Give the backbone structure.
Amino acid sequence: MLKKNKKQNKPKVLVILGPTASGKTKLGVDLARKFKGEIISADSRQVFRGMDIGSGKDLEEYGKGKDKVKYHLIDISDPKKDFDLAKYQKLAFKAIENILKRKKLPIIVGGSGLYVQAIIDNYDLSSFGANRKKRDELEKLGAKELFKRLEKLKQDFAKKINNSDKNNARRLARYLEIVENGGIIDRRLDSHYEFLILGLDFPNEILRERVSYRLLKRLEEGMIAEVKNLKEAGLSNERLESFGLEYRYINRHLNGELSYNNMIKELEIASYRFAK
Protein backbone atom coordinates (compact mmCIF):
# COMPACT_ATOMS: atom_id res chain seq x y z
CA MET A 1 0.00 0.00 0.00
CA LEU A 2 1.31 3.43 -0.90
CA LYS A 3 -0.34 6.66 0.14
CA LYS A 4 0.71 10.25 -0.41
CA ASN A 5 -0.88 13.10 1.50
CA LYS A 6 -1.80 16.31 -0.28
CA LYS A 7 0.89 18.61 1.07
CA GLN A 8 2.69 20.08 -1.93
CA ASN A 9 6.04 21.91 -2.14
CA LYS A 10 6.98 20.95 1.38
CA PRO A 11 9.90 18.92 2.75
CA LYS A 12 9.43 15.19 2.18
CA VAL A 13 9.06 12.69 5.02
CA LEU A 14 8.74 8.94 4.46
CA VAL A 15 6.51 6.92 6.81
CA ILE A 16 6.60 3.11 7.05
CA LEU A 17 3.64 1.40 8.71
CA GLY A 18 2.68 -2.22 9.20
CA PRO A 19 1.72 -4.88 11.73
CA THR A 20 4.12 -6.29 14.27
CA ALA A 21 6.71 -8.69 12.79
CA SER A 22 6.22 -7.24 9.31
CA GLY A 23 9.83 -6.11 8.84
CA LYS A 24 9.31 -2.36 9.11
CA THR A 25 12.73 -1.67 10.61
CA LYS A 26 14.60 -3.63 7.94
CA LEU A 27 12.73 -1.87 5.15
CA GLY A 28 13.34 1.50 6.79
CA VAL A 29 17.07 0.83 7.08
CA ASP A 30 17.29 -0.43 3.47
CA LEU A 31 15.55 2.71 2.20
CA ALA A 32 17.67 4.93 4.45
CA ARG A 33 20.82 3.50 2.87
CA LYS A 34 19.45 3.92 -0.64
CA PHE A 35 18.08 7.46 -0.24
CA LYS A 36 20.45 8.92 2.38
CA GLY A 37 17.90 8.81 5.15
CA GLU A 38 17.73 8.55 8.92
CA ILE A 39 15.23 6.62 11.02
CA ILE A 40 12.82 8.13 13.53
CA SER A 41 11.24 5.43 15.68
CA ALA A 42 7.53 5.90 16.35
CA ASP A 43 7.28 3.13 18.93
CA SER A 44 6.04 4.09 22.39
CA ARG A 45 8.27 1.48 24.07
CA GLN A 46 11.49 1.95 22.13
CA VAL A 47 12.01 5.33 23.78
CA PHE A 48 12.83 3.48 27.02
CA ARG A 49 16.28 2.23 27.96
CA GLY A 50 16.68 -1.41 28.98
CA MET A 51 13.77 -2.58 26.83
CA ASP A 52 15.66 -3.72 23.75
CA ILE A 53 14.35 -7.20 22.97
CA GLY A 54 10.70 -6.97 23.98
CA SER A 55 10.19 -3.68 22.15
CA GLY A 56 11.91 -4.95 19.00
CA LYS A 57 14.55 -2.25 18.68
CA ASP A 58 16.56 -4.55 16.39
CA LEU A 59 19.58 -2.28 16.73
CA GLU A 60 21.76 -4.70 14.77
CA GLU A 61 19.65 -3.89 11.69
CA TYR A 62 21.11 -0.37 11.64
CA GLY A 63 24.61 -1.66 10.97
CA LYS A 64 27.98 -0.59 12.36
CA GLY A 65 30.74 1.87 11.59
CA LYS A 66 30.49 3.82 8.35
CA ASP A 67 27.59 1.64 7.23
CA LYS A 68 25.50 2.47 10.30
CA VAL A 69 22.16 4.19 9.71
CA LYS A 70 21.50 6.96 12.23
CA TYR A 71 18.37 6.58 14.35
CA HIS A 72 16.37 8.88 16.62
CA LEU A 73 14.01 8.56 19.62
CA ILE A 74 15.38 5.22 20.80
CA ASP A 75 16.82 4.82 24.33
CA ILE A 76 16.03 8.38 25.40
CA SER A 77 14.02 7.86 28.59
CA ASP A 78 14.01 5.96 31.89
CA PRO A 79 11.23 3.31 31.93
CA LYS A 80 10.24 4.46 35.42
CA LYS A 81 9.32 7.90 34.09
CA ASP A 82 6.30 9.05 32.11
CA PHE A 83 6.70 9.63 28.41
CA ASP A 84 3.56 10.89 26.70
CA LEU A 85 2.30 11.72 23.24
CA ALA A 86 3.00 15.46 23.51
CA LYS A 87 6.62 14.84 24.50
CA TYR A 88 7.09 12.38 21.64
CA GLN A 89 5.58 14.77 19.10
CA LYS A 90 7.84 17.62 20.18
CA LEU A 91 10.99 15.48 19.95
CA ALA A 92 9.92 13.91 16.65
CA PHE A 93 9.40 17.28 14.97
CA LYS A 94 12.79 18.38 16.32
CA ALA A 95 14.39 15.24 14.86
CA ILE A 96 12.72 15.81 11.48
CA GLU A 97 14.06 19.37 11.30
CA ASN A 98 17.52 18.20 12.36
CA ILE A 99 17.58 15.56 9.62
CA LEU A 100 16.30 17.95 6.94
CA LYS A 101 18.94 20.55 7.83
CA ARG A 102 21.60 17.98 7.00
CA LYS A 103 19.94 17.31 3.62
CA LYS A 104 18.85 13.82 4.65
CA LEU A 105 15.48 12.06 4.30
CA PRO A 106 13.50 11.58 7.54
CA ILE A 107 12.01 8.07 7.68
CA ILE A 108 9.42 7.45 10.39
CA VAL A 109 9.09 3.77 11.24
CA GLY A 110 5.79 3.12 12.95
CA GLY A 111 4.87 1.00 15.82
CA SER A 112 2.40 3.07 17.83
CA GLY A 113 -0.50 4.37 15.76
CA LEU A 114 -1.13 7.53 17.76
CA TYR A 115 2.53 8.49 17.72
CA VAL A 116 2.54 8.33 13.92
CA GLN A 117 -0.84 10.07 13.67
CA ALA A 118 0.32 12.93 15.90
CA ILE A 119 3.07 13.66 13.38
CA ILE A 120 1.18 13.14 10.12
CA ASP A 121 -1.94 15.04 11.24
CA ASN A 122 0.01 17.51 13.40
CA TYR A 123 -2.19 17.20 16.47
CA ASP A 124 -2.31 20.39 18.51
CA LEU A 125 -1.03 19.17 21.89
CA SER A 126 0.79 22.33 22.95
CA SER A 127 -1.81 23.55 25.46
CA PHE A 128 -2.20 20.35 27.45
CA GLY A 129 -0.63 20.51 30.88
CA ALA A 130 -0.40 17.47 33.14
CA ASN A 131 -2.50 17.12 36.29
CA ARG A 132 -0.63 14.42 38.20
CA LYS A 133 -3.22 14.10 40.97
CA LYS A 134 -6.10 13.75 38.52
CA ARG A 135 -4.17 11.24 36.44
CA ASP A 136 -3.32 9.12 39.49
CA GLU A 137 -7.01 8.98 40.39
CA LEU A 138 -7.96 7.91 36.88
CA GLU A 139 -5.25 5.23 36.69
CA LYS A 140 -6.80 3.44 39.67
CA LEU A 141 -9.91 2.74 37.57
CA GLY A 142 -7.94 0.34 35.37
CA ALA A 143 -7.41 0.23 31.61
CA LYS A 144 -10.73 -1.44 30.75
CA GLU A 145 -12.86 1.18 32.51
CA LEU A 146 -10.72 4.06 31.23
CA PHE A 147 -11.02 2.93 27.62
CA LYS A 148 -14.78 2.53 28.03
CA ARG A 149 -15.04 6.12 29.28
CA LEU A 150 -12.79 7.46 26.54
CA GLU A 151 -14.78 5.59 23.90
CA LYS A 152 -17.99 7.11 25.23
CA LEU A 153 -16.60 10.66 25.26
CA LYS A 154 -14.58 10.56 22.04
CA GLN A 155 -15.34 7.53 19.93
CA ASP A 156 -13.44 8.59 16.81
CA PHE A 157 -10.25 9.10 18.77
CA ALA A 158 -10.70 5.85 20.74
CA LYS A 159 -10.84 3.89 17.46
CA LYS A 160 -7.26 4.98 16.67
CA ILE A 161 -5.85 3.52 19.89
CA ASN A 162 -3.98 0.24 19.35
CA ASN A 163 -4.28 -2.85 21.55
CA SER A 164 -1.13 -2.03 23.50
CA ASP A 165 -2.43 1.39 24.49
CA LYS A 166 -5.87 -0.03 25.29
CA ASN A 167 -4.20 -1.97 28.10
CA ASN A 168 -2.05 0.94 29.24
CA ALA A 169 -3.89 2.59 32.15
CA ARG A 170 -1.30 5.33 32.46
CA ARG A 171 -1.62 6.42 28.85
CA LEU A 172 -5.40 6.11 28.80
CA ALA A 173 -5.59 8.21 31.97
CA ARG A 174 -3.61 10.93 30.20
CA TYR A 175 -5.95 10.94 27.20
CA LEU A 176 -9.05 10.92 29.39
CA GLU A 177 -7.67 13.70 31.58
CA ILE A 178 -7.34 15.89 28.50
CA VAL A 179 -10.81 15.07 27.18
CA GLU A 180 -12.55 15.54 30.54
CA ASN A 181 -10.89 18.93 30.93
CA GLY A 182 -12.37 20.05 27.63
CA GLY A 183 -9.29 19.50 25.51
CA ILE A 184 -9.65 18.48 21.88
CA ILE A 185 -6.97 15.83 21.74
CA ASP A 186 -7.05 15.37 17.98
CA ARG A 187 -7.32 19.00 16.91
CA ARG A 188 -5.11 19.39 13.85
CA LEU A 189 -2.80 22.12 12.65
CA ASP A 190 -1.52 22.56 9.12
CA SER A 191 1.44 20.26 8.52
CA HIS A 192 4.83 21.59 7.48
CA TYR A 193 5.69 18.39 5.60
CA GLU A 194 4.64 16.20 2.72
CA PHE A 195 4.33 12.56 3.78
CA LEU A 196 4.77 9.49 1.62
CA ILE A 197 3.24 6.56 3.51
CA LEU A 198 4.24 2.96 2.81
CA GLY A 199 2.07 0.25 4.36
CA LEU A 200 3.25 -3.35 4.74
CA ASP A 201 0.77 -6.21 4.71
CA PHE A 202 0.91 -10.01 4.70
CA PRO A 203 -1.57 -12.89 4.30
CA ASN A 204 -2.69 -14.15 7.72
CA GLU A 205 -0.84 -17.48 7.42
CA ILE A 206 2.48 -15.78 6.69
CA LEU A 207 1.94 -13.18 9.40
CA ARG A 208 1.25 -15.93 11.94
CA GLU A 209 4.51 -17.67 10.97
CA ARG A 210 6.45 -14.42 11.29
CA VAL A 211 4.94 -13.69 14.71
CA SER A 212 5.80 -17.20 15.97
CA TYR A 213 9.35 -17.04 14.62
CA ARG A 214 9.95 -13.62 16.12
CA LEU A 215 8.66 -14.68 19.54
CA LEU A 216 10.94 -17.73 19.71
CA LYS A 217 13.89 -15.67 18.47
CA ARG A 218 13.35 -13.04 21.16
CA LEU A 219 13.11 -15.68 23.86
CA GLU A 220 16.41 -17.15 22.66
CA GLU A 221 17.96 -13.68 22.73
CA GLY A 222 17.12 -13.27 26.42
CA MET A 223 13.76 -11.53 26.62
CA ILE A 224 12.91 -13.20 29.95
CA ALA A 225 16.18 -11.97 31.46
CA GLU A 226 15.38 -8.49 30.15
CA VAL A 227 12.05 -8.43 32.00
CA LYS A 228 13.71 -9.86 35.11
CA ASN A 229 16.27 -7.03 35.02
CA LEU A 230 13.48 -4.47 34.79
CA LYS A 231 11.76 -6.01 37.81
CA GLU A 232 15.01 -5.97 39.77
CA ALA A 233 15.47 -2.32 38.80
CA GLY A 234 12.23 -1.55 40.62
CA LEU A 235 9.56 -1.50 37.93
CA SER A 236 6.19 -2.49 39.37
CA ASN A 237 3.88 -5.18 38.03
CA GLU A 238 1.49 -2.45 36.92
CA ARG A 239 4.21 -0.63 35.02
CA LEU A 240 5.39 -3.80 33.27
CA GLU A 241 1.79 -4.68 32.37
CA SER A 242 1.48 -1.30 30.68
CA PHE A 243 4.44 -1.97 28.37
CA GLY A 244 2.54 -4.39 26.15
CA LEU A 245 2.20 -8.09 25.49
CA GLU A 246 5.76 -9.37 25.85
CA TYR A 247 6.39 -7.62 29.14
CA ARG A 248 2.92 -8.46 30.45
CA TYR A 249 3.05 -12.22 29.86
CA ILE A 250 6.68 -12.69 30.82
CA ASN A 251 6.09 -10.73 34.02
CA ARG A 252 3.19 -13.07 34.84
CA HIS A 253 5.45 -16.04 34.19
CA LEU A 254 8.13 -14.62 36.50
CA ASN A 255 5.46 -14.05 39.16
CA GLY A 256 4.47 -17.73 38.96
CA GLU A 257 1.08 -17.04 37.36
CA LEU A 258 1.95 -18.83 34.10
CA SER A 259 4.16 -21.81 33.33
CA TYR A 260 6.82 -21.32 30.66
CA ASN A 261 4.87 -23.30 28.05
CA ASN A 262 1.58 -21.57 28.83
CA MET A 263 3.30 -18.20 28.72
CA ILE A 264 4.59 -18.93 25.21
CA LYS A 265 1.22 -20.24 24.06
CA GLU A 266 -0.80 -17.30 25.39
CA LEU A 267 1.74 -14.73 24.23
CA GLU A 268 1.82 -16.19 20.73
CA ILE A 269 -1.98 -16.07 20.45
CA ALA A 270 -2.17 -12.54 21.84
CA SER A 271 0.65 -11.33 19.57
CA TYR A 272 -1.04 -12.72 16.48
CA ARG A 273 -4.36 -11.09 17.41
CA PHE A 274 -2.54 -7.80 17.93
CA ALA A 275 -0.72 -8.11 14.60
CA LYS A 276 -3.97 -8.64 12.69
